[in-house]
Amino acid sequence: MRTVVFDLDGTLADTSADLIAAANACFEGVGHGSPLGVAQDALTAFGGGRAMLRLGASRLGLDWDEAQIDAQYPVLLEAYAGAIAVHSTIYPGAVAAVNSLRAAGFSTAICTNKPERLAVALCDQLGISGLFGALLGADTLPVRKPDPQHYFETVARVGGTAARSLLIGDTITDRDTARAAGVPIVLVGFGPEGAGVSRLEPDALLDHYDDLPALVEHLIPA
């Protein structure tokens, strides 16, 4: 079975505002302001919670070491869990594109470095959980992207084979995962980095989800 695997944050959904709000909550909780903003820090948001904490601490002039970052990380996760889909939105055309793929006989799945419980909660609240046959998060397995085993297991859980699959993503982590797995990588050109993501030399750049079904047919022929 042909399989299309999607990253979640920055690929299927723009979650940057809610992620940044959760990071700011950590700084507010220890008596500081809100150092991060969506306009300038969306790309960092998709790099993960610790990346946001490091940036915020640096911007505030806080001399936080990695132990302090690690101590704040669970605080960030709980703040995020409590307000996970306040501002998050599905990218235009994504639902229709996934439905078109499924109607054409493709299996679809999500492989994300977001903790599994949060990824499931987000998909549930966005109403897209039923579109995917499997969802593997950062803690589903002992490994995560860019380790190719994370990708391989995602494909296997929907009955697919890596040789007839591809990954849709938005970051260097997704690119490196696909290269390690030996599968095509499609990067979206509508995330925070825009068309600049082409610097990662993906097999294809997706400018709008309307173009995805035809693109996938080209990269994974029947």
Automatic annotation (TrEMBL):
**Stored SUPFAM superfamilies:** HAD-like
Q: In which pathway does it act?
A: Organic acid metabolism; glycolate biosynthesis; glycolate from 2-phosphoglycolate: step 1/1
What's one GO BP annotation on this UniProt entry?
DNA repair
Q: Which InterPro entries match?
A: HAD-like_hydrolase_sf (IPR050155), HAD-like_sf (IPR036412), HAD-SF_hydro_IA (IPR006439), HAD_sf (IPR023214), PGP-like_dom2 (IPR023198)
**Gene Ontology molecular function:** phosphoglycolate phosphatase activity
Keywords for this entry? Hydrolase
Q: What is its EC number?
A: 3.1.3.18
GO cellular component terms, semicolon-separated: cytosol
UniProt xrefs under Pfam families: Hydrolase (PF00702)
**Which reaction(s) are listed as its catalytic activity?**
2-phosphoglycolate + H2O = glycolate + phosphate
Give the enzyme's main class according to its UniProt record, as a single word. hydrolase
Residues annotated as signal peptide: none
Q: Which family does it belong to?
A: Belongs to the HAD-like hydrolase superfamily. CbbY/CbbZ/Gph/YieH family.
Q: What is this protein called?
A: phosphoglycolate phosphatase
Question: Which organism encodes this protein?
Answer: Pseudorhodobacter turbinis
